[in-house]
Each structure stands twice: as structure tokens, then as C-alpha cells.
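Pilot study result, target chain (1421 residues):
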Amino acid sequence: KGYMWDFRKGYKLSGYDSTSKYKTAALAMAACITSSTCNGVTKEGSKNFRTNTGSTPSKKSGMKCWIKGDESEKYSSYYFTKKSNYNMDSLGTKKYTTVAAAKTACIKASTCTGVVKKASKTYYLSTGYTISSKSGYTSYLKGGKEVKRQSMIINVQGYSWQYEAPMKLDGAYSEKTTLPAALKACAAASKCKGVTYKSKKYYLATGSAPMPGSGQQCWVKLGSGSAFEAQKVWTLWEDYKLSGYDSDTTVYTTKTAALTACAKSSTCKGVNKEGTKKFRLMTGTTPTSSSGTNTYELSAEVKPSHDYRYTKTSGYVATTLLDKKVYKDFHSAAKVCGKNAKCAGVTYVKAKTYKLYSGGACKASTGAAMYSKGSYYKTEHVVSFANEAFKAQSPSSFKGTKLGTAKTIELAMVECLKNKKKGCNGFSWDGKQFSTYKYTSIVTPTVDSMVWKHYGKAVKSDGYIWAMKEKYRLVGYDSTTKYTTLSKATAACAKSDTCKGVTKEGAKNYRTNNNNTPSSSKTMTAYIKGSKWELHNNIYYTKIPGHAIETDYDKATYKTLALAAAACKKKADCSGVTYSSKTKKYRMGKGYTFEPSLYEDIWVRGGDKPTTYSMTITYGGYAWTFKQPYKLSGYVNSTKYTTKKAALKACASNSKCNGVTKEGAKNFRLNTGSTPVPGPKFLKCWVKGGKSITSQSYTWGTYSDYTLGGMIGKTTYPTRAKALAACTKNSKCKAVVQRSDNKYFLSSASITSKTKKTNYTVYKKGSSAIASGGYSYAAMENYVYGGLDKTVYKTVDAAGAACAKNTKCTGIVKVSKGKYQIATGSDLTKGTGKTLYVKGGKDYTSRDIYLGAEMWTAKAPYTLSGAKADTTTYDNRDIALKHCLANTECNGVTLTGGKYTLYKSSTTTEKDGSVSWIRRGDILASDGYFWDKQAGKTLSGYYDSTTYTTLAKATAACAKATSCKGVTKEGTKKYRTNTGSTFSTNNGRTAWRQEDPFVLHGKMYYTKLEGKKLSDVQTKKAYDTEAKAAAACLKTAKTCTGFVLTNKKYYLTKGLSLYTDASYTAFIRNHEKVVNVNYSTMYGGYSYTVKGPFKHDPKKFGKTAYATLNKCLAACNKDAKCKGCSYFSMKKKYYTSSDSKVYLGEGTDKAYKKGGKSVVTNNYIFVNKGSNTKIKGDYLDSTTYTTLAKAMEACAKKTGCTGFTKTGTNKYRLGKKDITETKKGMQAYLKGSSVVAYHLKLWPSVSDMVITGQDKTAIATRKKAMIACSKNAKCKGVNKVGGKYYQATGDSYKVLSGGQAWIKGSSYTPSFTYDNTVWYYKDGYKTTGDIGFGTTSFDSKDKAMYWCVRNPICNSVHYTKKKYHLRSGNKAVEAVDDQAWTYGTSKVDFTKVALPVAGGMWNPRPGYKLGSPLEKKKTYK
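Predicted structure:
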């Protein structure tokens, strides 16, 4: 400081020159020099130096003092002490005119001890050593030659160190072998004030004032620490300040911002922290004491390289070299130095000559420089990939299990996420490659290395990446505000320089935090604020301000970040982009060694932003939302499926499964979660939606009993088709809602907001879709799949047919107009101008058809399985179905490969190209719909409160209501409409479920299905109307399967495969309309099941043609091999048949299928099926009846009862199927038709139909009508229409709801046994002949029969006018309302019978006579 100081250890000076306390001797000395009254400095304690007025030292243990001496000057490397008003002895005689000339001469003369100025320009040399006072004189006492003092600032271990040589510190202790080790130890020890070097050893020192020491060096620890910021070293002085505000008067809120601004300023020398968030730039250079204020003194510049900071000092070259190696540039030398703990720095000697040094010894050297190695610097940033956050730090490496390697950062993240189950929790870069790890610890420093540890879920908001950590929280609030949403909290945190993250503490309670270290919490979620990010060329870039990538990729520069990022994307090993604010240019970087830079920022390359693909496909009857790269949570089971098809199929049949995730090659898992979570781009998921339909070229998922808000406008639509069409044209429309009043509206709401509402249905709009070749396809414009087959197809259907046959086919690509190719790849890529049709599940279709007055459900692509009902295969659908109708074991037919096969089972199995027709049973075609009739069944849920008196009225009402699903007959004239569509058992009811719609052209039924298309469309000829197309189809019935409507034109079809296509309506040809008559009758004690229009196989007819039915039946009864009779309408004759099967015929064909012996009771025919038989299947109920009569009576009363089985002695169980099976020890009785035995004939009854040829004249009662019909040879039966009865002469029948017909059957006299007597019942008849004695009129039939049998005169009982009369006659005479019983044989024991007559008892003896008459000639009437 220009003065000489006399240092005294263990002494102090008296008198304070000021109240200031200084932290170092240097600061105190500087203050003392500026004061005319200050005579020295005393160190009174740690960081406590005081200026003194006294100059006489006094002893004081533990203290030190510096006595201020004279002012000194340096001239030509020699020191001269200046003493005003003093003279020296032994002056020479030579006069010098300038002080410089005199000092030069004195330096050259070894005996010269100084220079004396006597007057202006009068200087003399002195050789003496004595000085004395002399006014006006000035003496310059010659000192020693200057020892070159070396001084520089370095920064190591968080402190600034003042290097001094040749200087030393006192209080040496704790020897160290290397300078880095000594500095590290001193930084950690509070009592250590520096490091001193002597005798090739380094010692920690308690002294802080450098003292001359020949050949020695010292490093003084400065301030309270130091900081590296903005490429500078800043020494922290606590409770000190710098003076003078800089021209930049900004008050900065953060230290970083203030230090960066100061570094860029040419006048700023430091920064004062004057309060919380209050930093000011200062110009002063000397810190002075100021309680409560901290200052950051600008101490040195820093040059970073290979993860270490180097403090540069120019003009010196190191002399203690580490080795003899020479490096051509600084970074090459620094790379080696950073990895060597003994290396203290790099010294620049000359051009392309850099060497490493180990100690601080140095010498002056023009143009040379020393780069003192300081501490390593850390960099941190957060990158994201697939919504997962990875936090990077350097220079670090992992310790743990290495799982694999990767070439790029993106691949490293992919591999780590793939191997998450193996424990992968991070990846590293070692300067050559990336490695994935299951790490246990982090090793720091590891030069030129970087690690990325998995940091949690990534949330991108407000320009930052936030790492979400569930069950964690952050501590320390950044503000007192509570935010109700995460977005509000992150927005506030992003704007705050001190905010480090956000914690969700509860519902609608988010707090910002000033700490980013998470701690465990069971209920909270932490969002740690990470790096700023931007997206360029679909790649995420993370910003690290104030840094540069150490190695440039090449010399190219770019004007914008976008251009640089585009270039970086093309280079797999490009690690990011560096921006220079000085050049305003961007350049690519290579490697992951980042260095601090005042004017530069890094954009570190992260993972690709995965292209999100979303579409809706159909599979297994469901709509599936496909999303990539996404995954679903929760596993349904532990099964791993190897194919998508198998997984989707399993999920479709599992109520717990809400979707499928592809987690890797041949690894598909069923999931319970339904919310897709973003993941790596190899992940794919399919979210299970509602039941699927395809309409208006879109896939729609259906959600019954749900509704949505967000109604678009006020428009409602009368039909689903119109609503769906409108939705496809409206970009805001996400769904269509069907209300309970069958009106439709468009909705903009998401399906996730759906709410329960009975009788409402939501149709969620999915992807654009087509159907082809039996599969559904989701359309994606401007995308393609790889693996294109070379074959080019002209139409999408041709390509679809090829794709259906190829198990590896994943889709169809429309390359250009009229050019389609099938694909086998599954990775989506851009394909401008092309359209990709992604293959979904099979195009599952179903339709109901009418054949033989039975319902058949055709399903594709399905085959029936199990045993075949017939070994024969058929070439024609109608013939195959007719044979199935004739086969009691047949439940369906399958078409595969052009052949039709009959099966016993109705169980279906998927099979491409197959169509199966499942036999359903009775059908009603009414009001434009087919209705599945099920006796003994009921439907649930009432559509309205109306009770209808006829089936026709009920079906008409139901057909008009979309929510109505069927009709149930609950009793006589009691029909209710239902909303339920599932049959349940109710033996007293009959239900009709509404099925597919139909149209009738001529006598041919066509199932009409909108949005469906039959295969093999014949496009050569178009028809203008539906009727013309139907007529044309009928003319070519052998090949025509129906017709389709598209673009207002009709085209015939030849194929039976049904596909989904919204632009088509299919009309599937069924069969001619027939009235299926089915009842039972009896002839000669045998039952006959009558079916029309059916007949036995003509090939198995008997040779004899019979003119009447009775003759044919009589012949059949006599022939044990005869299985029945058929009326062949083409020949108008009856024929016996040796085959029991009956086939659908035409016109008035009728088959009489012979059964067993039968009886009529309770108005039903019951057929005895013989010994060792049982009604097939389970029993109708749990009741066991004890007698045959009770079983018959119970079965007659139950609609669902088909008969009963005698299972043991006095045990009878009711059945519910109309076929029997062999069962030893049992006997089955099948229930036939309801019949009426009247006027000595059987009258089988059929409901809801009448006989044609009805007479115009009404007859008041059924009995009178039957009597009239019995007498009329042309009459075929009696009809009941509108409560009146009519004779009918027709041979056919027609359906009439509420109507009833009684078919005139064979002659029949009912008989039964009562009181050991056979009686014959004749309804509608009377007998005559009075008995003439005794009681002959009774109130009870049984009493009348009892006494009639015991009266030899009585031959019958006659009921009339509510009385039963004994009659002697046995000839029955017609009497409409009367009844007669005539008896046949009797087993009554007449020897025990006595009749009271004329006051006496008489014993009748039938079959006997008495002896000779008492009065031979007398007789009595």
C-alpha cells in the first residue's frame, strides 16, 4: 500500500482511530493509510482488525499488530524509504539534478546507502548510516532489491484464495502432501485461514496476514466464501458493503440476476445485498464494515473446462510441473487435469504448449498464463420423454447394476422405461455411450460424465417441466396464497424466481414452495419445478441458461433455434444447441460436458414428442379407442397374450376388463383402468368402449341408459340415421343422444361426462370407418403402415378380400386413386396423400330371417360346433334350412366353403368366411318386424300403462316405440308392451320379442337392415324401385340372395355374407310367407301331429294314393312301419310315409306325423311315448304329482308345459321340451294341442289364425257351428272372429290376431271307466226311453251312472236342464246343449245289488232269465 509496516506478534497498539472493525489486515491497513492520525493496526480476534492511533506496542497474548512506518518508493527494482526534513551523513561531492539520476547512481554503487535532496535539482549520494533532522532536506534511504511478489486470486472449494509468494502465513499445522488436499481441508476447517508452503510440504495455517518468506508461498482464505456466477469469482463478505452505486440502478430480486448484470458491466466491481430480494450493483473496490449487509466482491475471471473451473492469471508461468507432457490446447490439458487429483492447474507457456502443474510456484513470464484449477461445477436440468421426467446432473456416474446400453438419449429413456420392472431408475453418459442402470448411488465428481435419474411423472405447464411425485410434499412456502387448481399454482410458481415447486395438500388446495427436496407424505402430491422447455421439430429441448456445450458439433451456425434444432434432429449424436447472445447465432453441440458461459445458453436435446395416434376400431362387438403412445393401469389377471386379437377377444368377454395395453413384443395385458396414460412410443393401448355400430362411415360406441349434456343448438332429429349423419358433418359433435321420446340431439360433451338415465342411449362418435371382406377398418388419412405387399388392387373391397385371407395383414393402404395395397407392418408413419385403413376386428353381423314360419338368426363370421345333425352337406341355403326344420335334433346350419352343414348345437365359434343360421323357434311377422315367440316366457319392464286386448294391437303399439322391445300375453285379452329384451320363465305367459325389420314383396319376406351390405353385388343392372328389385330377385331365386340400396339405386346380390357399410341398405331374401299350422289330432287311438305347409319326403311315400285323410290314417294305423300321412297338394292326394321327418312344402301341403297311443283329457291330447322314455332336459318345476290324472290336469293349465314323465311309482314330473330321450324305467307323455271333443268329433284348436273360405253367415254359438260343420261335407272347421262363429271350407289358414279356429277332425267318441263300467260320452246329444219305476232323475252325474248300471232297464244317462236322467234307450239323438253317456261293458257284481221297487227289494241279474212264466200270456210295458 506504499508504506512500510512493522509486524509484532503478541503485541497490540493503543487508541482506536475509528469505530470500524475490519475482517482482514489488508482492509484495515488500507483504511489506516487514508487516515493522517492512524499509526497502526491490531488484530484483536477472528475477522476483527482495528485501526490505532498509538505507535508504541505493548504485549498482549493472542494479538498481533502492524506499526505504520514511513512511506516507501520503488525505483528500478529497489525500495527507497522517504524521510522528509532529514539529512544523511557521509555525503558525496557529485551533484545530480534529478532524483532519478541520483537513485540510478546509488543503485549502481554498492557502498551507496541513500540519496539526499538539499534543494531543487540538487541531489547527493550518501555512504553513511546516520540520519539527522534537517529542515528542507529530504532523504531517500536505500533498501533492498525488490523481491518479485506474485499475487493472484484462485477459487477452490467454495472460497476465494489470495495467492502470495514469496510469502508465508504463521500458525502452520496439519501437514498435507498436495495443494488440492490442503485447500480442501482448510475450506472445511473454520480455524484455518489459509495454506502455507515450505520445505515441499503444505500446511494449514491459522494466520491470515502474509509475511515475507524466502522461497515460500501461501494461500489466504478470503471472506465468508465465494461463488461462481457469470464466469466470475465473487468473494462473499458478510456484514460488509461496497460503496458507490453503478450506473445500472436496477434493484435485482435475485443474486444470480444481479451478479450476471455486474459481470456484463464494465464499471461494476461487486454486488451488495441490502435486503430480501434486494441486490444492487456497486463500483467501489474496498469492502467496509456494515452490519446486516453482505457484499459480493468481483475477484477474478473463470475459464471452465471439463467440469472444473480454472482461475486465469496472466503474466506468470508455473514452475512446479506435474509431468513433462505437453498439450496443444487448454481443453485437452484441462481434460487430463480434471481427472487427476494432484493436478493444481494448467499453465500456458507459449503457442500450442500447455502443461499441468501440481504446486503454486511460478515466475513472471510475458505472454504466459496460469489456469489455477478450482472446484468442479455442477449442472442440472430436467428432460422428459413419454411424460416421464428424468433429472440430469454432472459430473456424475452411477454405481449399481448396469442393465444395457443405448446410442442416443431417446433410446436410453426408451430402454429404461421398458426395463422399469427390472428396476431401471436412470441412465448415464460416459463420454462414449449411454447405459441404463438400476443404480444404488451417484458418484460425484466423474469428469465428462452425466447421469439422468428417473424423477417422476412429467407435467408440462407454463413453460416448465414439473416432476410429479405422488405421496410426497415440498416444505417451505413461497407465498401465503392457496390456489384452487394446479394450473393456477404452477402459473404463479413459474413467475417467481424463488419458487421451486408446488404441493397439492388437499382438494382444491395447492401451495407454492421455495424448496425442491421432496419429503414423504401419505396424502399429498409434489410437483417439482424443473427446467424450461421448448418443442422443436417434435423434439423436446430443455434450457440451461448461462452454459454452453463444451464441444461444438461443427463450425456451422444458424440464425434461429428452429433451424438449429432441425439440423440437430438429423444427427443422432447431436446433444443440443448453444446460443450466443453476442453473435446472436446458434450452433450444434456434441457430448454432455457443459460449461458455464456468461453470454450463452444451452438447449439440451431430450426425447421426441411421441406422435399421438388415436382412432376407434371395432372388435368383438365393442368400439375400442386406440391410442399410441399410451398405456392403461391395473391388471385384470397375470396372463400375457401374444397377439392383439387374443387380448381383445379376452377383454371383450371379461366384464372387469376396460382395455388392453401392448407393453412389448408379444406382450399384451388386460387392464382394469380405462384412462390412457402417456408413455414411451412403443406403448399402445385399446380402451374398451360401448357396443359398436358402424354408420355414416364412422364407428360409434353405444352406451345404453346414459345421457350427455352439451346439446348443440335446439334441433332434434326423428331418426338415428339422420342424427348420426348430422353429427358426422359437425366438427363440434362428439356424440348423439337418443332420448326416451325417441328424438335425437347432437352433443359436444365428452363421453367421460356421461350420466345414468333410463331409456336414453349415447352414440359416441369414433373414427372414420369402412367394412370390407368381413372386417372393420378405421380410416386414417395421410398415414401408412409398412410392409406393403407388391400386389396392387383396384378396389378397397378387392384388397379387403385379400387382407381377410392373410393372417399377417394389418391394414390396407390407398396409395392413390384406384390403387390399394395390403400391409403387414404395425408402425404408423406419415404418408401424405395416402389413406390407411387399419384392420380391426371381424365385421360381426347378425340378421333375423323367416323360413317355414320359424325364426332363424344368421350370424357372421361364425360356424356352429359340435356334433352334426346330418352327415349330408347341401348346396342351397333353403334346402339346408328345410332339412334342419325336418330334423328334431337340428338347431342350426353353417355355410362354409360353399357347403351347408346341419348341426345339433347352436353354440357358435368365430371362423372367417362362415355364416351360421341358428334356429330360434316360432316367429310372428307383424307391423314391419319379426317377433320371436316364446311360450312359457315373459319380458320385463312395461313400456306404458296400457293393457291391449289383442296381440295385434300390442305389437302395433310396440313397433312404433323405439324403447319397446316386445309384448307379453299375461292373460286372456291381456297384452302388455315391454322395455326388456331378455326372456325369463313364466309358465302361464307367452312373450314376443321384437327383432329385425322386414319388408314383404308378393309372398317373399326380405329382412331390411340399414348400414349393411350383402356380398357379391351385381352392379351391371340397377333398379329404380324396391319393388322392381324384389320382383327381379324372385325370378332368379336360385341365385339371388337379396338386393342392396345405395345412391338411390337397387342392385341384386348373390352372396350371403353381410358386411357393415353405412352407405348401403341390405334386403336379405328370406322365404315365402307361410302360415305355419301346427296342432295335434287323434285317429283310431293314435295321435298325429299336424304341420302345414309341410309334407313327408315324396321319395318315401307309399305307393297307394288315398282320396281322403281318414283312409290314409286308417291304413297307417294298421301298418307298424308307417310314420304318418301327407297331403300332397300338387296331386291332391294323401300318401303314407315310412319316414318320420317332415319338410317344408308349398301351398296346402300338410303332414300328419304319427305318434303313439293317446288320450284326450282336460281338453288336451296327451301322447304316450312308451316305456323307457323321458322328456328331454330339465323339469319345468319342482313339483311331483302322485297320479296320472293330476299330472295331466296340471300340465293342461300351464302354458310352458310340454308334457310329463312318470319317473317312478306314483311320481310324475312336468317337462318343458317337446322332444324325448331314452331313460330306463321312465315313461313320457307329450302334450299335444288343445282340443274340443264335440258332436262325436275331435276339434283341435289353433289360436290367432283362422281357416280360409269362411262362410258369411254367423252362427250364434260354437256348438251350433260345430254341428252345422259336422253335417257339411265341405266344412273344414269353425272360425271364431269378433265373438261370432263361422263355418270355413278352405284348405289353408291365415293369421288373425284374436281369432281362433277349431279344425274338424276325425270321428271320436270319448270313453272312460267309472264304477267298473265303460261309458261313452256324446256331447251335443240326448237319449230317450223312460225307466218307468223307481228314482230316475239325479243332481249328480256319478249317482245317475251308479243307479243306471244297476238297473237292467237303464242303458244311458241324459243330461238336460241341469238334471241327469236314467234312460232305457242307447241311441243318441242330436241336441245342441245336451249331453249323453251310454255304457258298454260292466264288471258290477249284481248278486249284491238290490233295487227297491213297488215296496219290495229286487235283485237284478243281467244275462239271466227265470223259469216258466207265472202268467204266460200277460206282458208289461
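One observation from the pilot: The radius of gyration is 57 Å. A full batch analysis is planned for the follow-on phase.
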